[in-house]
Amino acid sequence: MKRIDAIRKIMKDIKDEIVISSTGMISRELYAVKNRPRNFYMEGSMGCALGIGLGIAINSKHKVIVISGDAAVLMSLGTLALHKKLNPKNLKHYILDNNCHSSTGGQPTCSDVIDFSKMAPNTVVIKVSKEKGDAPRIPLSPKQIMRRFRNAIRSHRL
Amino acid sequence: MKKYDFIVGIPCSKLKDLTDEIKNYIPCTREDEAMALAVGAFLVGKKPLVFLQNSGLGNITDIITSLLKPYGIKIDLLISLRTNPEHHAFMGKITKRLLKLLEYEDYKLITQ
Fold it and tell me: Which among A44, A149, A153 has the least Cβ separation from residue B67?
């Protein structure tokens, strides 16, 4: 499966969930598939998407979806342990695993030797193909992404 | 401390009095993870505080430069300033300069 098709599948039945997307092509493809104010496109800080999702999940009743890549998750494996420890029922973590850094030329990762889905709850690993994809850059500034996200949450505080 | 409704971080013996007070202490694994949790809390309207040793400043440099700065997110930091023994000396020497270089103003240093 192509990564963008995995994102299409995740977003197909989305309603008012908050979606945190990881650095690079995942955020770009999420923008291309379904741009909405409740998407937080985390364009930098690789490895921090699950941490942000946990911070939202334990501080609110919002349903949270985090979409990560294997390389980003490997950067912060400790956060999987914290996810298991906190175990918020309102967070689901999708890991799109292509066993490489596709944005930077397909350099391999170690994802083939571990099973993320056994390390934390509500974690779904979707194997995806290694192609880089061609989604363009997100035409919103980080401050625009932030402002519209917070406004959307503020108008619907749980 | 009362102005914060979400306190998270990596412990230090110099901050023990603070961390002992926290109900539902969250056992974060790294400083940048604590910062990410604080950002999540901020995004849903909380007022978070992150505590850490100055030795952990290196671990939050990326999230400061590539998330907090570009997105305009401000998180208050409580940093214990350790300058000895030897493995703390260099970071102890450059801590204030590093924060200045990062243009980070929302912090308090605890020296004892």
Answer: A44
